Amino acid sequence: MRPEAQTRLSPDRSTLALYARRAAPRYTSYPTAPHFTKAFPEAVYRDWLAGLDPADAISLYAHIPFCKQMCWYCGCNMKLAARYAPVTSYVDSLIAEIDLVAAELPERMTAAHLHFGGGTPTALEPDDLARIVTHFREKFDITAAAELAIETDPRTITDAMISRLGALGFTRASLGVQEFDPRVQAAINRVQPAALVQAVTEKLRAAGVTAINFDLIYGLPQQTEAAICKTVAECIEMRPDRIALFGYAHVPWMAKNQRMIDEEALPSGNERAAQALASAQALVDGGYVQIGLDHFALPTDPLARAAAEGRLHRNFQGYTDDAADCLLGFGVTAIGRTPFGYVQNETETGAWARTVAAGKLPVSKGHALSLEDMLRGYVIERIMCDGTVDLDDAGRQFCFDADWWDKEAPTLDILQRDGLLLRDGARINLTPEGAKLSRVVAMTFDTYLARGQARHSVAV
């Protein structure tokens, strides 16, 4: 939904309840990672790297899987850093992987984005983080205006790390807030008072990391509509530049730590939908612009400007103003994209490290993009980012005939009947209800869902 169209979000709660429990991919890629091919040939990725255009800027992502404390809600690939020796070894392997990838490129390339995700990247010692950043700068031309972003845990970040982030030139930090209600915090094993988050925020800004993101979650155990709205109000007082408002993805078949969560304490579908609507409205009322499905930003933030100008994109970090066609991923489980297709690294740390030590690119899965993949991926991205797309225009961009989407029309008619979208010929526009259920609308154009047994989290 474009920012200028926002005043009241006003989705119909009965429509949300109808679709809220439907499982749907998050669409940070198309096809999504569960549909990548296993045992993907390393030689293909080498060819893709060699075929990149040196004139195009790229983006870089480094995955740091370590955390100092276990959170029961977390669905990320993470490891507890009980001892630091394995972390040091991981950093050595990560630096070696950077060397391997850089050696396959046609020449030294320019990067305008460097993102550290996890896990908790600030679980590293400051010197080790500096080693990685320095090595990236040695192998890539990271522009002076580049965004350097890092995810952090307010409970465990140290003053020494905050100081080093400023010295290394980091421009953005994302703080995991989730929820301030004490009952919810106890239920997810993540206790952090609002005062702690505020103190870390102020220290980061003072160190020069002036762009601050908060992550919030609704649908958590013991959570109520009143609790999440109170947390939103406390966050607004701290005035982060961006707030991501995610629905809790309960996937205990993937994340064993989630088995510690009492499923009886999870909110119902109706309660979850109410939390999503009320907290989103509170953010808009507090002066934030809604960006796509689940991001909110101050009107002056680059993400809000990109949304207003139709330049919003979606990648593995969520909504972004990064228009690069190539994102190189480093570290265990990291997913990358080139103009030719996707690759994912080994998901087990030992296997990843051994492959790197053998001088091989540690890819385990991948997918070569067909022209139809590119078309459908474009349509899905525009639905997720803009809430509107002209299907015939999209087809022409990728050399497909008009009405290529006819076979999806019956489903579109159902979604229109249920109030999720409006159709004007080949153009579809999401309603306020559809904007909250954009993942469900996007599923219409996903031809891979029927090909496998991948399980996904619920749509709201």
Q: Which consecutive residue ranges, at least 5 long each, have pLDDT under 50?
A: 1-10
Counted up, domains total 2
Radius of gyration: 21 Å
Distance between the termini: 17 Å
What class, by secondary structure content?
Answer: alpha/beta
The CATH class label of the largest domain is Alpha Beta
Query: What is the name of the CATH superfamily of the largest domain?
Result: tm_1862 like domain
Architecture (CATH level 2) name of the largest domain? Alpha-Beta Horseshoe
Kindly report the CATH topology of the largest domain.
Answer: pyruvate-formate lyase- activating enzyme
Major sheet description: 9 strands, mixed
Multimerization status: single chain
How many extended strands?
20
Shape: globular
Q: How much strand content do the residues show?
A: 15-25%
Give the rounded overall mean pLDDT.
92
Helical stretch tally = 16
Helix content: 25-40%
Strand order, sheet with most strands = 10-11-9-8-7-6-5-2-14
